[in-house]
Amino acid sequence: MALSWFLLSFLFRSLYAHNDFFTSIGQMTDLLYTEKDLVKSLKEYIRQEENRLEQVKEWADKLDSLTNTATEDPEGFLGHPVNAFKLMKRLNSEWADLESLVLKDTTNGFISNLTVQRQFFPTDEDQTGAAKALLRLQDTYRLSANTISNGDLPGVVHKSRMTVADCYELGKIAYTDADYYHTELWMAQALTQLEEGEESTIDKITILDYLSYAIYKQGQLERALELTKRMLKLDPDHHRANGNLKYFEFQLEKQSTAEAEKKEVEDK
Amino acid sequence: MALSWFLLSFLFRSLYAHNDFFTSIGQMTDLLYTEKDLVKSLKEYIRQEENRLEQVKEWADKLDSLTNTATEDPEGFLGHPVNAFKLMKRLNSEWADLESLVLKDTTNGFISNLTVQRQFFPTDEDQTGAAKALLRLQDTYRLSANTISNGDLPGVVHKSRMTVADCYELGKIAYTDADYYHTELWMAQALTQLEEGEESTIDKITILDYLSYAIYKQGQLERALELTKRMLKLDPDHHRANGNLKYFEFQLEKQSTAEAEKKEVEDK
Fold first, then answer.
1. Average pLDDT over residues B256-268
2. Which superfamily does B124-267 belong to?
3. Which residue from A210, A145, A222, A122 is spatially nearest to A172, judged by alpha carbons?
């Protein structure tokens, strides 16, 4: 087990080595500690925001009960000179204090921390590099997208699952590289996880759009057409899907006409 | 009871009538409804902020547990190629999404509402006018500051208490008018309420500062000195209090020397 983990890790590192920047585990380890620091700073921001919001809520609750009482009997309420004075004071001074509290900026500490650390962050290229290393690993070990996504890699210690968004991201990186084979594998995996009920900000239509195109580019017109129909069930007005539907149907008809003609010629 | 409320209310209105703008109960009633609307808008802002903060907290919690696991065994963690890919993706894309969430401005609806309504708000002059009307009412009815602050006005329906800040505000308005008699009454009331344990943003030193000066201006040097000593117990380095201490002691000495000399002359 330990040996296979070591081999995998070694393989991954060598697959990954074409990448200029984050080649060493040491550099990536630094990033883990950077992230830990950022989380600490973020938690401090959350604490300040909760505190600020608590004060705003106290004011809102106080004013809510006050205005409810006051508007039930405005004349009676304002007949009390202290109420009249307090109303003047509230509107002239206190709402301005509340406004300052609403506009108070507590983001400064965290945001400047993030800005400083960002210069050491990986770039789009690093992200793409890591994704492609993962795709090469998949091919080398002949692993299914499902196996990788579930984290069932042989011998790894820290099992890590991929989300719908992670799978979608891998699919998109393959797509940008015109690698429709991996696009299909990973968009299909994203779709499966969505259908199994995983919550995600990525929707089925977006995934089906990539998936049907990747399948079409691999020459499987009928499957592409079927997926396009699924898209249109979810969104009947989808512009590209409506266009593709006509195009795929036209192409399929052309194909079957050509086949029929070919058969006719052969039969003669 | 109802009659006395009516009379009080009428008196208050006539006392108050010198003020140009908020002379009618009708105009003040409109302000109550404005305030009610603002509270509604504020509650919507709170709802949005709570929602936003909840998302930030979910991210922080997720990352907190993730970075704790990761930094326990960085090599093992990063040996898993999916972890390495996810780290790249997180740093390159997801922290930026979190940054947008942190910087998301939810204040817009409430603040523009407040800005629109502010043009109808009472001014400093209106607030001062209402305060002075209250002071005249106090004199007319010979009411103690305590009676008014507790809302124990004869016959009023909506009993309304004054906070330390309200009493302090009344005292300050009297002070600005060089009305040291009412300054003393209301600063003393503010101090009493603080000493009874009421929570306030106004501190004892600030109140004692006004109070001792108002008492000094009414010629009661010894009481002014005593209050200045109380101030210095709370803040031994208070600049003005230290100056006043010397000055009051010097004045008191001058007084007693003068009296002694006068007595000597009389005795001769």
1. 83
2. Tetratricopeptide repeat domain (1.25.40.10)
3. A210
